[in-house]
TrEMBL record:
The keyword GTP-binding does not apply. One of its GO terms (cellular component) is cytoplasm. This is Amidohydrolase-related domain-containing protein. Keywords: Lyase. GO terms for biological process: secondary metabolic process. InterPro entries: ACMSD, Amidohydro-rel, Metal_Hydrolase. The keyword Nucleus does not apply. Coiled coil: none annotated.
Amino acid sequence: MEKARWEDAWRFPASRAVTREEGERLWKAEVEKREYLKAVVFVTAGSNDFAAELVARNPGKFIAYAHHDPLLPDAAERLEKAVVQGGLKGYKLLGPKIDRPLDDRSFDPIWEVAQSHDIPILVHFGILGGAGGIAQHVNMNPLRIHDVAKRFPRMPIIIPHFGCGYLFETLNLAWACPNVSIDTSGSNQWMRWMPYPVDLATLFRKYRETIGASRIIFGTDSSWFPRGFTDAYLDVQVREMRDSGFSADEVDMVLYRNMAALLKLPETSGGKD
């Protein structure tokens, strides 16, 4: 019911299954038909090896992150291999899927690899899944990563979805840790379930006031076809930024330059205003 309501609200078509080969072709076409879309960043792609193959076959169009279980005994070595041999540019984690506190020292070898290669760690905190999903977990609160961010101050950390319900905690985390950025991805439906009114304009304004536009990163959560790249999210977020007082330069930072800096890409304009 929630999924149907969300699809209807954004007027998204129903999803359909595609093969890996078809998905690769469709995403390549999404980049090529949009002049302002510099590349697609895959934060998950089925496996690190497949992600590396995608990048190798589509240089300049696809960027990918590693995504594997950090509880594996060789998790740090896998990340090293993914970055050095596979050319992957970051590491995606789902906090509520990891049944050990992320500030446990046993994860330090992973953070050491990330910091040594200067790659961002993208960690989902907050509620996970639709209605009936995960709402309580040891790694639910973004402040769980606070001590890690302090111990590894040169490791970029990205918190997606504006903190996904943990607005106060994410603002505090980002205020305390200058290596923490937030991303804006998705429909941010969690705003509907907050005990006080929250909208995109409020989120953009609060984060800009707290950490500045240079640590806000645009994201879409685009994932399936025939929807493809979610222009609707882009259009709404650009409008809300401008209405919230962001300058054209700040909008460009959010849409492209901030992420380009983290990924070591050319820091030219994203080309969409």
